[in-house]
């Protein structure tokens, strides 16, 4: 499923769903149905989608931009010297930092509503 220009609400059904995050802040809704849902992002300037119903260990977020880096999670996570995916366990915000401690700020990709931790395979670059 892919949203159009503007803020959309996309709701998945039973079984595996694929969501494409667009450049506007969309609401992506899935359910814990035992199927793997895929959330794909091809643009590092996505405007903070809200993902509802994400299940760690079942669903996957795939980023199609930037060099790969580790998943760093915690309260106000900070990247090291290289690229990293950052997950703030306090508020569910998932960001990508392309240069670590360099001059570029991390880009907020999505907020995973109600999610407080991620498994290593939940985010793929």
From TrEMBL:
Pfam families: HemolysinCabind. Coiled coil: none annotated. Gene3D superfamilies: Serralysin-like metalloprotease, C-terminal. GO terms for molecular function: calcium ion binding. This is Hemolysin-type calcium-binding repeat-containing protein. It comes from Falsiroseomonas stagni DSM 19981.
